[in-house]
Design a protein that fits this description.
By secondary structure, the chain is an alpha+beta fold. Helices cover 38% and strands 7% of the residues. It has a 5-stranded mixed β-sheet.
C-alpha cells in the first residue's frame, strides 16, 4: 500500500516524495513509538540525497511530528550521517590503537596524499570520501580499511592506494569478508535504513584470526574461571566486593544519605 505524501516544505519532486513517504511509513511501523524510527529514516533520506540534506531533515521532522532542530540534533551527533555531499565510496581507515600500531596512521597519511584530500573530504571526481575511523571492531585483522562499511583486512599503504585507484576507475572490488562486492554509499545507506539488498548471506563465515584464541584455548585446556559463589549465609546474594572494600562500605557520610538536590525534604532521592 502506497502512503499518501505529507504536506511538505521540502523541495522533493512528487515521485521522490511519494517513494520516501512509503518507505518512511514502513520504517515507522516497526516501532511502538514512531519517533524511534528517526535513525533509520535519516539513513533513508541519505540514500536519496547522498547526505542528510535540508530537505531530508524537514521530511523526517514532518513525518514524525517533531521539529527540524530535534532532527538536526540527532543528525549532527552520529558520524555516519553526512551533512554535506558524500562520495560514491566512503573509505574509512581505522586509526585507533591497534590499527594505528600496525600501520593505520601510515595508511591514512598515504591515502590522504595520494587522493589530495583530508579527513571527511571528497575527491574532485566525487568518487571517494576519506575518513579516519575510531574503530572498525576488527582488531584481529589490523590494520583495517572499510569501503562503505565492507571490510578490507590486513592493509598496507600500497594495497590501500591500489584499492582507492580501482574504486575511482569504477572497477569491481571484493571485500576480504562479508559481502562479495561493494555497493555505493547511497545503496548502503538504504541497507542501513533497514531495506535488504540481498547480500546479507554472502559472508563465508568467521575467519581464522577471529577463532585463533578459541583454538589455542581448546588445545591447551584453558577454561574460563568459575563465577563467585553466593554468600553461604545469604543464598542468591550478589557479592559486590571483598570485606573492607569500597563496595562493602556502609553508608556513613552525608553524601551517602542526603536527599538529592532536585528533591524536596521528605521525598526519596532518586
Amino acid at each position: 500500500m502506497t502512503a499518501e505524501p505529507v504536506q511538505t516544505r521540502t523541495r522533493y519532486d512528487g515521485e521522490t516524495l511519494a517513494a520516501l513517504t512509503t518507505d518512511a511509513t514502513a520504517i515507522m511501523a516497526r516501532y511502538p513509538d514512531p519517533r524511534s524510527g528517526l535513525l533509520p529514516m535519516l539513513h533513508l533520506v541519505q540514500s536519496v540525497d547522498g547526505y542528510v540534506s535540508r530537505d531530508g531533515i524537514l521530511f523526517c521532522a514532518e513525518m514524525l511530528g517533531i521539529t527540524a532542530a530535534e532532527v538536526s540534533a540527532v543528525a549532527t551527533f552520529y558520524t555516519q550521517y553526512k551533512r554535506h555531499p558524500n562520495g560514491t565510496y566512503t573509505v574509512g581507515v581505522c586509526t585507533n590503537t591497534l590499527c594505528a600500531v600496525m600501520g593505520g596512521d601510515a595508511i591514512f597519511d598515504e591515502l590522504s596524499e595520494h587522493l589530495g584530500v583530508g579527513h571527511d573530504e571528497t575527491t574532485d571526481d566525487g568518487a571517494i570520501t576519506l575518513e579516519r575511523v575510531e574503530c572498525n571492531a576488527a582488531c584481529d585483522y589490523a590494520p583495517v580499511v572499510m569501503v562503505n562499511w565492507e571490510f578490507f583486512d590486513n592493509q598496507t599503504p600500497e594495497t590501500a592506494t591500489a584499492l582507492a585507484d580501482e574504486l575511482r576507475l569504477g572497477a569491481d572490488v571484493a571485500p576480504t569478508r562479508g559481502a562479495t562486492s561493494v555497493c555505493s554509499f547511497k545503496q548502503m545507506s538504504r541497507v542501513l535504513a533497514g531495506f535488504s539488498d540481498g547480500r546479507a548471506d554472502e559472508d563465508a563465515g568467521t575467519g581464522e584470526p577471529t577463532l585463533a584464541g578459541l583454538r589455542i584455548a581448546r588445545e591447551r585446556g584453558w577454561t574460563a574461571p568459575d563465577a563467585p559463589s553466593p554468600s553461604p549465609d545469604k543464598p542468591g546474594e550478589t557479592i559486590t566486593g571483598e570485606p573492607g572494600s569500597s563496595a562493602d562500605r556502609k553508608p556513613t557520610t552525608p553524601s551517602d544519605t542526603q536527599v538529592g538536590k532536585d528533591k524536596k525534604p521528605g521525598e526519596d532521592a532518586k
